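We append the chain.
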Amino acid sequence: MFSPEGPRLRELAVQVMSSVERGYDLLAPKFDHTPFRTPDSVLDATAVALRRLGPFDSGLDLCCGTGAGMDVLARVCRRSVTGVDFSAGMLGVARERTRPDGPTAGWVRADARALPFGPAFDLVVSFGAFGHFLPRELPGLFTQVHRVLRPGGRFAFPMVAPPRPGSLAYGMLLGFDVVMRVRNAVWRPPFVMYYRALRFGALQRDLVRTGFRVELHPLPEFGQRPDGSPRVRLVVAERTAEPRVGRGPSAVPVRPRPAG
């Protein structure tokens, strides 16, 4: 994080005291040099797993950031890939790293809670974004994903097994969340970024209630925990029914803006 390419402590302090959108606008030029970016090992393992389920025609990277997930989509989608994010700074960096030899790429600035698309996608992926949504917002977010998928389309995202209570990783995540909650209690606008708020049981229930059929695919590249369970799973939720909860605002389908 504090390498010559990454943000300095002062820059991070300014970013975290801003809104989520403004904070990521500021962080965008150096985001790929921080621990917040999904590691390439997770992206590669996800692409391998999705190849076994595809190929797909059109894909959407939800909360795409600087576009790392777009590289995954480019490996498994034949026609087009689209990235959506509400940070103009992150989208600017993402456009610059578009692969010219891949499927047609488009970038759209929008709030994931009100996606401006019709049912245009066979695959939606997301990497590390759920911590920016409060638990009560997730049903509405999943309804938006359900709405933009074609029947039979899939929503896929990796999930790392939670660290054991008492471990160093557990303490670090707990400490980070406590700091963020104190910050949001005394400072406005809020910066929603909670790493421990997501619980798989609640997430799975929200997906099922929204009209998804949920499957778990272990990512063997990351091995197993001492109890034999996978360290990392790919959650694959298939659109099977009309959503029953959390309908978000209506949206008009738009054509993704070409990259460049």
